[in-house]
Amino acid sequence: MNEFSILCRVIGSLFNRQPQDPLLVPLFTLEQDELLQRLQQNSDPQALAADYNALFVGPDCKVPPYASQWPEGKPEPEVRAFLASRGMPLSDAPADHFGVLMLAASWLEDQSAEDESAAQCALFDSYLLPWCGAFLGKVEAHATTAFYRTLAMLSREAIQAMWDELNEAGEESSEA
User: What's the whole-model pTM score?
Assistant: First the structure.
């Protein structure tokens, strides 16, 4: 698993799971990386749970985490079909959740051949980039904790860096 994959997995997990989820405990106790250090500075569990629920949970949430709920996003069945066509195992949960799409980027990276980035480029180009800027901007605007504001900002930076890396890899492979 490379840095790209790990970063997607961390971001995806933090957006996809309640902050008190036992599976996230290791993320809050690691101290190896600048991303995690910046996030840990603002990680009061009760405040995070309240903010997560207000931001992302329920029909009255402030920031819908599903692509299908954004004008630029794709319908959930289309996202699900794309991921399933790439062999990604999916649960019954909506496949168009921002966190799931970040986890999908990690999964595609881990499954792809060394020189194959077409599936990742399609994921970013068609299913993530059209709406994630607006989504992350709203997270930054509506979050009451610094944790989710910082996570949104870091996610935006990471997604841009990953997209640039995918584009560079694509250019190199087309030149070869």
Answer: 0.87
